[in-house]
Amino acid sequence: MLIVGGLAVFVGAIVQGAVGFGLGLVAAPLLTLLAPDLMPGAVQVVNMTLPLFTLAMEWRRVDWGGLGFAVLGRLPGSALGAVIVVYVSVYMRGVFVAVMVLVAVALTARALSVPRNAVTITSAGFVSGVTGTATGIGGPPIALVYQHAKGPQIRATLAMFFFLSAVQSLAILALVDELPSAALMVGGALIVPMLLGFLVSGPLRRYLDGGKVRTAVLVVAVASAAGLIVQNVLSQVLA
């Protein structure tokens, strides 16, 4: 599990290091198939650690005003996500998130610009809190709101948001007794491939900063939905 899961985290860290999000969408579906009892806690440990490396380089580009609204929205979203973890099946959670992401991408891809204000950022933070706590994938809602920003601002703002969000989700999961010690141990072991993936992401990050960030954000968001659908189909087949 650590070998296969580590490879997924490595690839996810490359994507997130370049685009600003993506670790959860690559790693969470596979980790859920391999060890559903350890999710989403294990991936949240990695989600908490990776942003620190991004912030070490680009913390000056954080949109602090937008971050405040996003965190404000995530607080009640995380609480709802914890309720979903306790009472809703993994299959239904995955389908719900996948449909929401696909609808959001379809709407924003057709628009000339996505409004980025207190209402949209707070709403995105709320949705991210629900999906991040329930499935470990909370990046797409915030990333879609920031898709027209410059690459460094997207990565820095999302990094700070993901760090705070992961800490919050881990605390809530522990509060509802959904954070086994094994999840923390596996998450800690996955930090090594995560760091290697982040180091490899440098060239891709420079390439995308040449005006291709928005396309990358939309592609990665669609991939997150597709990954969840595949995960849930496989889980039903293997059940």
Automatic annotation (TrEMBL):
Subcellular location as annotated: Cell membrane
Membrane-related topology note: Multi-pass membrane protein
Transmembrane segments: 66-88, 94-112, 156-176, 182-204, 216-234
InterPro entries per UniProt: TM_pro_TauE-like (IPR002781), TSUP (IPR052017)
Keywords: Cell membrane, Membrane, Transmembrane, Transmembrane helix, Transport
Similarity comment: Belongs to the 4-toluene sulfonate uptake permease (TSUP) (TC 2.A.102) family.
Protein name, per record: Probable membrane transporter protein
Organism in which the protein naturally occurs: Nonomuraea salmonea
